[in-house]
Amino acid sequence: MSRVLLIEAFYAGSHSQLIDTLEKGLEGCAVKYTLPGKKWHWRARTSALYFSEVISPSQEYRILFTSSVLNLAELVALRPDLSRLTKIVYFHENQLVYPVRKQKDRDFQYGYNQIITCLTADIVLFNSKYNMESFLSSIGTFLKLMPDFRPKGLAEKIRPKSKVLYFPIEFPIMNDPIADVMEGLTLAEQASSLHESQEVFEKSKDRAIKSGVTGEQTVSCSSVLSQLSSPLKIVWAHRWYSPSACFDCITSLDCYNHLSATLI
Fold it and tell me: Helix %, strand %, coil % for the chain, to 5?
């Protein structure tokens, strides 16, 4: 029974990952409609018309879930049968504050579409508090770009149905690195390894205190990492616009010279 309608106009990257995670978690209770993740601007402009023609009518649908790329107002106008569903929109980013080189380069239509999408939706979800607050607080300023007949109070209408829902991450099964080191060692060897790690920690702590950093803020992990049988896994929970920021962070680790890592 397909009770949840999943729609993604830009099926790539985090957008496809979220839809796939939801589809997997719903275990056969969802039906998915997507467009390839390319030509973003055209997806934002025209996807509502496409989906209005391809989504099969069904009385089983109860929930419609989509991202803010889709113009939800247009879709519901073209498909009135979908208006009865609980409509949820998820913001990966918002076009009111999305970085542009010059303000004149910002296409008013994309931000406007997101605003009327929120007005159409029953629940508006953002992947961070910053994303939510920057969107809601920018609506008034954004609408001043209109020459006249500017609507008022839209943020006050949208805020009560807005919530923060952090992006779900499905972690691969990972073993405890310390357990990996200890596996197969005798009790005496385990004790020796732990003692060595403690000595390294204390030396690192002393160095930190001398440099003005508390011992709780730094830990040397070279003793453990040098014995790992598989790479350490590092989660970089930020945009990939500046990869150097990630690598600068990693290379600053006390254990960098002993580090073999997989970046997620």
Answer: 50, 15, 35
100 by DSSP, 3-state: which? coil
Nearest 5 degrees, angle CA 33-CA 163-CA 77? 45
Residue 121 identity (one-letter amino acid): A
Each residue's pLDDT tens digit, 210-241: 655 554 444 445 555 555 556 666 666 655 55
Strands 123-126 and 86-91, bridge-based pairing: parallel
Say if CB 45 and CB 90 are below 8 A apart.
no
Give the distance between the most distant pair of CA atoms in the chain. Answer: 80
pLDDT tens digit sequence for 184-197: 666 666 566 666 66
Structure tokens at 99: 């970085």
Which residue, 179, 258, 191, is CA-closest to 223? 258
What is the C-alpha to C-alpha distance for residues 219 and 204, in angstroms, rounded to an integer?
6
At a CB cut-off of 8 Å and minimum separation 6, what does 208 contact?
214, 215, 217, 218
Asked whether 196 and 223 are in contact (CB, 8 A), the reply is yes
